[in-house]
Amino acid sequence: MNRETVKEIMQSEGILPQSKFGQNFLCDEDIIKSIVDLCEIKSEDQVLEIGPGLGSITYPISELTDNFTCVEIDNGLAGYLTENLQGVNIINDDFIKHHFENPECYNVIVSNIPYYVMTDIMKKLFAEFNKAGRMVFMVEDDAIARIDCKPNTKQYGPLAILCALYGSYNYEFKVPYTAFVPQPRTTSAVISFTREGSADILNPDFVKFLNNCFAMRRKLLKKNLSSIAKPEVIDEVFRELSISDTSRAEELEPYQFASLYKCIINNSKQI
């Protein structure tokens, strides 16, 4: 889908990009092909796309699998895709609010994620869709600092920990603003994740646990955990894992949060 095609569709369908949804339609065919190739889709895969827009990635993916679901918040775009795409399940809803009956069935997930909802979308994906073997996202390039970061940095938090525990991460390539209609003011980037065994710990309760750990960043971790476990349990777990009583959440490695979560569950059942 090139720039001319995108403009023709917008004109013929009366589609105006909605800034409230962060809509910028991808129109570079080489980049589209690269993103689809990164998904590594096999015919038997169950694929989920979030925010398909005009379908620049949706159309080529629909030719690779018959098991394809898209979630589109915009009523007009959802209607356009439903009318023009055969064999694709189009869900017209807010992905963050939508309840999926069987999220673990999806093998591949792809999305051009608007920056303003990036954290919420990725948290839901890692919590509920953690069985997927492959995830490919386009995000604002500046947002990478919140995804690929280390402990004891300002950006380090629940999102970075979830990304690290899900599996291996790759920064694939930059996407210039000229690859979109309309053109955004910032550069985008395509990133990919491949699931590893550490993703087994991920679930909605673990995300809540991480949010609690970072609820007050400057407070001691023990203080933040006091709302979900008894003091004696926290003391025992910290001793067991050799975590300092004066530690703050931003100081722990991702694997330490996984161990901490499992130990607190085993010792208290209060999460």
Structure at a glance:
This protein has 271 residues and is an alpha/beta fold. It contains eleven helices and nine strands. The chain folds into two domains: 3-201, Rossmann fold (3-Layer(aba) Sandwich); 216-268, Helicase, Ruva Protein, domain 3 (Orthogonal Bundle).
Describe the structure.
The protein is of the alpha/beta class and 271 residues long. It has two domains: 3-201, Vaccinia Virus protein VP39 (Rossmann fold, 3-Layer(aba) Sandwich), CATH 3.40.50; 216-268, Helicase, Ruva Protein, domain 3, CATH 1.10.8. Helices cover 38% and strands 17% of the residues. The chain is built from eleven helices and nine strands. It has helices at residues 3-13, 29-39, 58-62, 75-84, 118-128, 144-147, 158-166, 204-213, 221-225, 231-241, 254-268; strands at 25-26, 47-50, 68-72, 89-92, 108-112, 134-140, 167-175, 180-181, 188-195. The strands form two sheets. A seven-stranded mixed β-sheet has the order 4-3-2-5-6-9-7. Strands 1-8 form a two-stranded antiparallel ribbon. Strand 5 (108-112), helix 5 and strand 6 (134-140) form a beta-alpha-beta unit. Helix 5 (118-128) packs across helix 7. The longest helix is centred in the C-terminal third of the chain and has 15 residues, at 254-268. It is elongated. The mean pLDDT is 92.
